[in-house]
Amino acid sequence: MRIGTLASLTGLSRDSLRFYEKRGLLQARRASNGYRDYPEEAVQWLGYVRTAQQLGFTLAEIAADLPLLAEGQDAGPALRATLARKLADIDARIAALQSLRTGLAARLAETPETGASCPLRPT
């Protein structure tokens, strides 16, 4: 299918599709007239890419998992491991943010509403 059709089916711009192709996330054959020709599976694959991005995966992480999703492979265990790693990363970031929030709240509580005291001095 041509790039315009793929853009319409996926809701992505042509520029986005070209970007994904440049990054190696999408492959097109070149027709004799030089136009890109995308396989039908590209629609489903791009749905996977967009879902993965919404779940916090970077394009580099998505590209690294391309071999896991190749036809004929049981991607279930590998995909579960990838999702579990991402969940652990998110939990670690949440814990770090909670610690940061606790420290900031403590400094706020120590800061008088008036006066020259600076809450950013080391404690």
From TrEMBL:
GO molecular function: DNA binding; DNA-binding transcription factor activity
Keyword Cell cycle in record: no
Alphabetized Pfam families for the sequence: MerR_1
InterPro entries: DNA-bd_dom_put_sf (IPR009061), MerR-type_HTH_dom (IPR000551), MerR_fam (IPR047057)
Gene3D superfamilies, per database record: 1.10.1660.10
UniProtKB keywords: DNA-binding, Transcription, Transcription regulation
Record-annotated HTH merR-type domain positions: 1-68
PANTHER family attached to this UniProt entry: HEAVY METAL-DEPENDENT TRANSCRIPTIONAL REGULATOR HI_0293-RELATED, REDOX-CYCLING DRUG-SENSING TRANSCRIPTIONAL ACTIVATOR SOXR
Annotated protein name in UniProt: DNA-binding transcriptional MerR regulator
Organism: Roseateles saccharophilus (Pseudomonas saccharophila)
